[in-house]
Amino acid sequence: GAGVSQSPRYKVAKRGQDVALRCDPISGHVSLFWYQQALGQGPEFLTYFQNEAQLDKSGLPSDRFFAERPEGSVSTLKIQRTQQEDSAVYLCASSFRSRGGYEQYFGPGTRLTVT
Amino acid sequence: AQSVAQPEDQVNVAEGNPLTVKCTYSVSGNPYLFWYVQYPNRGLQFLLKYITGDNLVKGSYGFEAEFNKSQTSFHLKKPSALVSDSALYFCAVRDMIRDDKIIFGKGTRLHILP
Would you place residue A103 in the very low, low, confident or very high pLDDT band (cuts 50, 70, 90)? Predict the structure, then answer.
Protein backbone atom coordinates (compact mmCIF):
# COMPACT_ATOMS: atom_id res chain seq x y z
CA GLY A 1 0.00 0.00 0.00
CA ALA A 2 0.96 3.62 -0.36
CA GLY A 3 3.02 5.28 2.32
CA VAL A 4 2.67 8.74 3.79
CA SER A 5 2.77 11.40 1.12
CA GLN A 6 3.43 15.10 1.47
CA SER A 7 3.04 18.00 -0.90
CA PRO A 8 4.64 20.09 -2.08
CA ARG A 9 8.06 18.51 -1.70
CA TYR A 10 9.72 21.90 -1.95
CA LYS A 11 8.33 25.33 -1.23
CA VAL A 12 10.02 28.70 -1.53
CA ALA A 13 8.16 31.54 0.13
CA LYS A 14 8.93 35.18 0.50
CA ARG A 15 9.01 36.48 4.05
CA GLY A 16 5.52 37.40 5.11
CA GLN A 17 3.79 34.99 2.76
CA ASP A 18 1.37 32.32 4.01
CA VAL A 19 2.04 28.67 3.15
CA ALA A 20 0.04 25.45 3.43
CA LEU A 21 1.67 22.04 3.62
CA ARG A 22 -0.33 18.91 3.01
CA CYS A 23 -0.01 15.42 4.46
CA ASP A 24 -1.78 12.28 3.28
CA PRO A 25 -1.32 9.60 5.94
CA ILE A 26 -1.50 5.87 5.45
CA SER A 27 -5.13 4.86 5.08
CA GLY A 28 -6.65 3.79 8.38
CA HIS A 29 -3.94 5.31 10.56
CA VAL A 30 -5.54 6.93 13.56
CA SER A 31 -2.66 9.12 14.64
CA LEU A 32 -0.96 11.87 12.70
CA PHE A 33 2.07 13.87 13.75
CA TRP A 34 3.86 16.93 12.41
CA TYR A 35 7.55 17.56 13.05
CA GLN A 36 9.95 20.33 12.12
CA GLN A 37 13.52 19.36 11.21
CA ALA A 38 16.07 22.11 11.04
CA LEU A 39 19.30 21.55 9.14
CA GLY A 40 21.60 19.22 11.04
CA GLN A 41 19.08 18.53 13.76
CA GLY A 42 16.67 15.79 14.68
CA PRO A 43 12.94 16.21 14.12
CA GLU A 44 11.15 18.36 16.69
CA PHE A 45 7.55 17.58 17.58
CA LEU A 46 4.99 20.16 16.54
CA THR A 47 1.53 18.68 16.96
CA TYR A 48 -0.50 15.46 17.15
CA PHE A 49 -3.94 14.40 15.95
CA GLN A 50 -5.97 11.40 16.91
CA ASN A 51 -8.50 11.14 14.12
CA GLU A 52 -9.79 14.71 13.70
CA ALA A 53 -9.00 15.80 17.23
CA GLN A 54 -5.86 17.81 17.81
CA LEU A 55 -4.77 16.41 21.15
CA ASP A 56 -1.42 18.10 21.50
CA LYS A 57 -0.15 21.28 19.93
CA SER A 58 2.50 22.04 22.51
CA GLY A 59 5.30 22.04 19.94
CA LEU A 60 3.92 24.71 17.64
CA PRO A 61 6.48 27.52 17.89
CA SER A 62 4.08 30.43 17.59
CA ASP A 63 0.47 31.33 16.86
CA ARG A 64 1.48 31.73 13.22
CA PHE A 65 1.45 27.93 12.99
CA PHE A 66 -1.88 26.19 12.62
CA ALA A 67 -2.72 22.57 11.80
CA GLU A 68 -5.97 20.84 11.00
CA ARG A 69 -7.28 17.41 10.11
CA PRO A 70 -10.99 18.02 9.64
CA GLU A 71 -12.06 14.57 8.46
CA GLY A 72 -9.52 12.52 10.30
CA SER A 73 -7.41 11.71 7.27
CA VAL A 74 -5.59 14.44 5.30
CA SER A 75 -3.90 17.11 7.38
CA THR A 76 -2.71 20.60 6.54
CA LEU A 77 -0.06 22.58 8.36
CA LYS A 78 -0.42 26.27 7.72
CA ILE A 79 2.19 28.89 8.49
CA GLN A 80 1.10 32.50 8.36
CA ARG A 81 3.41 35.44 7.72
CA THR A 82 6.44 33.22 7.23
CA GLN A 83 9.76 34.24 8.75
CA GLN A 84 13.26 33.14 7.82
CA GLU A 85 13.51 31.04 10.96
CA ASP A 86 10.63 28.94 9.65
CA SER A 87 12.95 27.51 6.98
CA ALA A 88 13.15 23.78 7.68
CA VAL A 89 11.91 20.41 6.53
CA TYR A 90 8.41 19.70 7.77
CA LEU A 91 7.77 16.01 8.33
CA CYS A 92 4.45 14.29 8.69
CA ALA A 93 4.09 10.86 10.25
CA SER A 94 1.18 8.53 10.90
CA SER A 95 0.66 5.57 13.16
CA PHE A 96 -2.02 2.94 13.52
CA ARG A 97 -1.75 3.18 17.27
CA SER A 98 -3.48 5.79 19.32
CA ARG A 99 -0.36 6.81 21.16
CA GLY A 100 3.14 7.75 20.08
CA GLY A 101 4.66 4.80 21.82
CA TYR A 102 4.58 2.77 18.65
CA GLU A 103 6.38 3.12 15.40
CA GLN A 104 5.52 6.04 13.20
CA TYR A 105 5.64 6.05 9.41
CA PHE A 106 7.10 9.20 7.94
CA GLY A 107 6.52 11.02 4.71
CA PRO A 108 9.38 12.42 2.62
CA GLY A 109 8.90 15.90 4.05
CA THR A 110 8.36 19.36 2.64
CA ARG A 111 11.45 21.54 2.48
CA LEU A 112 10.39 25.12 3.15
CA THR A 113 12.77 27.93 2.32
CA VAL A 114 11.78 31.44 3.34
CA THR A 115 13.66 34.18 1.50
CA ALA B 1 12.76 15.96 31.11
CA GLN B 2 13.11 13.01 28.81
CA SER B 3 15.93 13.08 26.30
CA VAL B 4 18.31 11.02 24.22
CA ALA B 5 21.89 11.83 23.40
CA GLN B 6 23.89 10.70 20.40
CA PRO B 7 27.48 11.57 21.27
CA GLU B 8 28.90 11.12 17.78
CA ASP B 9 28.04 13.42 14.90
CA GLN B 10 29.64 11.00 12.44
CA VAL B 11 30.84 7.42 12.43
CA ASN B 12 33.06 5.92 9.73
CA VAL B 13 33.25 2.15 9.29
CA ALA B 14 34.86 0.01 6.63
CA GLU B 15 32.51 -2.20 4.66
CA GLY B 16 32.26 -5.66 6.19
CA ASN B 17 33.25 -4.48 9.66
CA PRO B 18 30.85 -4.37 12.60
CA LEU B 19 29.27 -1.01 13.33
CA THR B 20 27.95 0.65 16.45
CA VAL B 21 26.02 3.89 16.68
CA LYS B 22 25.72 5.10 20.24
CA CYS B 23 22.70 6.41 22.11
CA THR B 24 22.10 7.14 25.76
CA TYR B 25 18.80 8.11 27.28
CA SER B 26 17.46 10.01 30.22
CA VAL B 27 13.93 9.15 31.30
CA SER B 28 12.03 8.50 34.46
CA GLY B 29 10.47 5.08 34.51
CA ASN B 30 10.72 2.43 31.84
CA PRO B 31 11.63 3.90 28.47
CA TYR B 32 10.21 3.22 25.06
CA LEU B 33 13.17 3.56 22.71
CA PHE B 34 13.42 3.68 18.94
CA TRP B 35 15.91 3.85 16.10
CA TYR B 36 15.07 5.50 12.80
CA VAL B 37 17.15 5.89 9.65
CA GLN B 38 16.98 8.75 7.16
CA TYR B 39 18.27 8.34 3.63
CA PRO B 40 18.87 11.42 1.44
CA ASN B 41 15.65 13.05 0.22
CA ARG B 42 13.56 10.43 1.94
CA GLY B 43 11.54 10.36 5.13
CA LEU B 44 12.60 8.64 8.29
CA GLN B 45 12.21 4.89 8.32
CA PHE B 46 11.55 2.88 11.44
CA LEU B 47 14.29 0.37 12.24
CA LEU B 48 13.42 -1.09 15.61
CA LYS B 49 11.99 -0.40 19.03
CA TYR B 50 12.40 -1.49 22.63
CA ILE B 51 9.39 -1.48 24.91
CA THR B 52 9.92 -4.39 27.24
CA GLY B 53 11.32 -7.90 27.23
CA ASP B 54 14.61 -9.04 25.75
CA ASN B 55 17.38 -6.51 25.96
CA LEU B 56 18.58 -7.37 22.46
CA VAL B 57 16.12 -6.10 19.89
CA LYS B 58 16.32 -7.13 16.24
CA GLY B 59 15.11 -4.84 13.51
CA SER B 60 15.10 -4.18 9.80
CA TYR B 61 18.06 -4.57 7.42
CA GLY B 62 20.04 -6.73 9.86
CA PHE B 63 20.26 -4.06 12.54
CA GLU B 64 19.90 -4.76 16.23
CA ALA B 65 20.09 -2.70 19.38
CA GLU B 66 20.99 -3.55 22.93
CA PHE B 67 19.07 -2.03 25.81
CA ASN B 68 21.31 -1.57 28.84
CA LYS B 69 19.46 -0.23 31.85
CA SER B 70 22.49 0.17 34.09
CA GLN B 71 24.29 2.25 31.48
CA THR B 72 21.09 3.91 30.21
CA SER B 73 22.17 3.08 26.68
CA PHE B 74 20.51 1.78 23.54
CA HIS B 75 23.30 1.38 21.01
CA LEU B 76 22.53 0.38 17.44
CA LYS B 77 24.64 -2.42 16.00
CA LYS B 78 25.17 -4.46 12.88
CA PRO B 79 27.66 -7.33 12.55
CA SER B 80 28.78 -6.52 9.00
CA ALA B 81 28.31 -3.07 7.46
CA LEU B 82 27.21 -2.45 3.89
CA VAL B 83 27.90 0.65 1.84
CA SER B 84 24.13 1.01 1.49
CA ASP B 85 23.89 1.47 5.27
CA SER B 86 25.36 4.95 4.85
CA ALA B 87 22.66 7.31 6.14
CA LEU B 88 21.61 9.47 9.06
CA TYR B 89 20.51 7.55 12.14
CA PHE B 90 18.27 8.89 14.89
CA CYS B 91 17.71 7.50 18.33
CA ALA B 92 14.39 8.46 19.92
CA VAL B 93 12.43 8.03 23.13
CA ARG B 94 8.77 8.31 23.92
CA ASP B 95 7.95 11.24 26.15
CA MET B 96 6.74 9.68 29.40
CA ILE B 97 4.57 12.66 30.30
CA ARG B 98 3.04 13.53 26.97
CA ASP B 99 3.14 10.03 25.54
CA ASP B 100 1.96 11.07 22.13
CA LYS B 101 5.32 12.70 21.56
CA ILE B 102 8.59 11.11 20.44
CA ILE B 103 11.79 12.95 21.27
CA PHE B 104 14.59 12.52 18.77
CA GLY B 105 18.32 12.81 19.19
CA LYS B 106 20.27 15.07 16.87
CA GLY B 107 21.36 12.21 14.68
CA THR B 108 24.57 10.40 13.75
CA ARG B 109 25.78 10.28 10.18
CA LEU B 110 27.11 6.85 9.32
CA HIS B 111 29.63 6.51 6.50
CA ILE B 112 30.46 3.03 5.30
CA LEU B 113 33.70 3.08 3.37
CA PRO B 114 34.06 0.63 0.47
Answer: confident
Q: How far is CA B41 from the centre of its chain?
A: 20
3-state SS, chain A, equals: CCCCEEECCEEEECCCCCEEEEEECCCCCCEEEEEEECCCCCCEEEEEEECCEEEECCCCCCCCEEEECCCCCCEEEEECCCCHHHCEEEEEEEECCCCCCCCCEECCCEEEEEC
- A104 interfacial to chain B (CB closer than 8 Å): yes
Question: Which SS3 state, helix, strand or coil, does residue B14 take?
Answer: strand
Q: Which residues on chain A are in Cβ contact (under 8 Å) with B95? A: 100
Return the pLDDT at A76: 98
Instruction: Give residue B4's identity as a one-letter amino acid code.
Output: V
pLDDT tens, position by position, A72-101: 999 999 999 999 999 999 999 998 876 555
| Residue B46 with chain A: CB contacts under 8 Å | 103-105
B22-68 residue pLDDT tens? 999 998 888 899 999 998 877 899 999 998 888 999 999 999 999 99
Measured CA to CA, the distance from residue A112 to residue A99 in angstroms comes to 28
Which of A58, A82, A56, A87 is CA-nearest to residue A69?
A56
Judged by a CB distance cut-off of 8 A, whether residue A72 touches chain B is no
